[in-house]
């Protein structure tokens, strides 16, 4: 059983994560204070420390340095808000394995934790440990969803490299997992590498492994991602972030199907199918010389485009229901659905963060609602502020309109006034006039 210490002064989040990880059979300890967390780290070994970045007494950065000093084998994952991304990158330099931006869904953090455990002990793990999460997949019924599935089915049984292209959060990693699952390599490992978080200095050792003593800090022999994925699939996420020298080495390994550990001249044969993903236009990176043309063609034997959520309109509410079910299971709740106004807002919203944003939004709303339905009250205001037209259907009298808005805001007058774009006093006056 793996042990995890969760450190966050947000007690609700801590307890929610505790419940979730216990269900996933982790041994969980929580700490709402960073000072208390340090004492716990001193007295017991944890496989994983999941810590918030901003806390009142000791900040997350200090926790990382502390863990790395006391128990260097413990893997640290940092939780941070969007605004803290640059500090999160600093945290990786200090020795954190990865970071996750709040708000996040429990499955996302589980995914990172599983990857972190693999990193801590990079032996080839069983398929289920490496490729977690594929059971949480909804394939959609709309035209674009069907086309996506057709391409996956077509390419899966082949040995071709696939470049999966799509905006952030559209589900590129899920597509890669499906290709693996539907291929005859499904019983072999699926190893996902986030190329964006690999440091330049450690990239070669991460991909190809190293021998003990090859460089300061190489205290044991370690196999790299290629050997870990031998016989299976190596998924290169955010492949456009690889630096030039790593691109050269990667291409060499792919062409020769052999790798050399850093610090050794011995070549080891590997049999790996490559799937790669990007949310940038690699064609453009190629033209400005940031991405090697030869590597691009080696990775892009077949291209799959994953559409943004806003283009999968007929599937939007199906995805929402799917995530609602998932949230109910994770949180032990039984919310039955979405209010009509939420349906309207969901189908007209641009979803810049795509399925990841929807999953987080639904999870948060499920946690917040005290009723059977999710209403606008549980959505961040950015959702409906840009969708004002739903407040103005044609032929509606002012009284009807105010009544409808009061309904969708659960008679919360401040919220209704904001939505109606009038001050509270005016709203009270109109409620009287129309006897609402
Ligand atoms: N078809 C799907 N059904 C259910 N959940 C999905 C689906 N596709 C994606 N998700 C969920 O959305 C989130 C983002 O998915 P994923 O990590 O695969 O996206 P991505 O395109 O690889 O993102 P990024 O470019 O940021 O790496 C994950 O939590 C994933 O579980």
Any chance you could write out the topology, listing elements then pairs?
Layout lengths: L2 E5 L3 H13 L3 E5 L2 H10 L4 E5 L7 H11 L4 E7 L3 H10 L3 E5 L3 H15 L6 H4 L12 H13 L6 E4 L6 H10 L8 E5 L8 H6 L16 H4 L4 E5 L6 H13 L1 E3 L6 E3 L3 E6 L3 H6 L5 H7 L2 E4 L10 H16 L5 E2 L1 H9 L5 H15 L4 E2 L7 H4 L12 H11 L4 H8 L3 H10 L3
The structure holds adenosine-5'-triphosphate.
Adenosine-5'-triphosphate binds next to helix 5, helix 8 and helix 16.
Pfam family, one: HTH_8
Keywords: ATP-binding, Nucleotide-binding, Phosphoprotein, Transcription, Transcription regulation
Protein name: Response regulator
Question: What this model shows, in words?
Answer:
A hairpin with a 6-residue loop joins β9 (258-260) and β10. α18 crosses α19 and α19 crosses α20. Helix content is 45%, strand content 14%. Strands 2-1-3-4-5 form a 5-stranded parallel β-sheet, with helices on both faces. It folds into 3 domains: 1-121, Response regulator (Rossmann fold), CATH 3.40.50; 126-307, P-loop containing nucleotide triphosphate hydrolases (Rossmann fold, 3-Layer(aba) Sandwich); 311-433, Helicase, Ruva Protein, domain 3 (Orthogonal Bundle), CATH 1.10.8.60. It is globular and about 85 Å long. The protein contains 20 helices and 14 strands. By secondary structure, it is an alpha/beta fold. Adenosine-5'-triphosphate binds at residues 105, 107-108, 133, 136-138, 166, 168-174, 237, 277, 279, 355-356, 359. Adenosine-5'-triphosphate is lined by residues 105, 107-108, 133, 136-138, 166, 168-174, 237, 277, 279, 355-356, 359.
């Amino acid at each position: 059983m793996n042990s995890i210490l969760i450190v966050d002064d947000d007690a609700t989040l801590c307890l929610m994560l505790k419940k979730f990880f216990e269900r996933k059979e982790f041994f969980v300890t929580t700490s709402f204070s960073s000072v208390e967390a340090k004492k716990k780290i001193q007295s017991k070994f944890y496989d994983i420390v999941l810590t918030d970045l901003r806390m009142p007494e000791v900040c997350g950065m200090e926790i990382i340095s502390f863990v790395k000093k006391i128990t260097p084998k413990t893997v640290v994952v940092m939780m941070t808000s969007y605004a803290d991304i640059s500090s999160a990158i600093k945290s990786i330099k200090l020795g954190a394995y990865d970071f996750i931006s709040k708000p996040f869904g429990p499955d996302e953090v589980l995914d990172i934790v599983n990857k972190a455990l693999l990193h801590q002990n990079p032996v080839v793990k069983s398929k289920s440990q490496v490729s977690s999460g594929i059971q949480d997949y909804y394939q959609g019924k709309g035209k674009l969803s069907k086309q996506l599935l057709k391409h996956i089915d077509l390419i899966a049984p082949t040995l071709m490299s696939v470049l999966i292209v799509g905006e952030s959060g559209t589900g590129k990693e899920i597509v890669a997992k499906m290709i693996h699952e539907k291929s005859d390599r499904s019983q072999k490992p699926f190893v996902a590498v986030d190329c964006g978080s690999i440091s330049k200095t450690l990239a070669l050792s991460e991909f190809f492994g190293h021998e003990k003593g090859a460089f300061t800090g190489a205290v044991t022999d370690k196999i790299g991602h290629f050997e870990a994925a031998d016989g299976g699939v190596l998924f290169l996420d955010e492949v456009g972030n690889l630096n030039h020298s790593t691109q050269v080495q990667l291409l060499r390994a792919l062409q020769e199907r052999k790798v050399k550990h850093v610090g050794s001249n011995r070549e080891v044969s590997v049999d790996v199918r490559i799937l790669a993903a990007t949310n940038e236009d690699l064609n453009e990176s190629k033209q400005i010389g940031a991405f090697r043309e030869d590597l691009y063609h080696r990775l892009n034997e077949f291209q799959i485009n994953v559409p943004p959520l806003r283009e999968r309109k007929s599937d939007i509410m199906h995805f929402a229901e799917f995530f609602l079910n998932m949230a109910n299971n994770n949180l032990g709740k039984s919310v039955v659905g979405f209010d009509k106004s939420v349906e309207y807002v969901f189908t007209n919203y641009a979803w810049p963060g795509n399925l990841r944003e929807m999953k987080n939004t639904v999870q948060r709303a499920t946690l917040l609602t005290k009723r059977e339905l999710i209403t606008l009250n549980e959505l961040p205001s950015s959702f409906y502020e840009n969708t004002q037209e739903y407040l103005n259907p044609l032929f509606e009298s002012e009284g009807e309109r105010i009544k409808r808005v009061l309904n969708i805001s659960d008679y919360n007058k401040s919220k209704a006034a904001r939505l109606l774009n009038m001050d509270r006093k005016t709203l009270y006056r109109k409620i009287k006039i129309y006897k609402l």
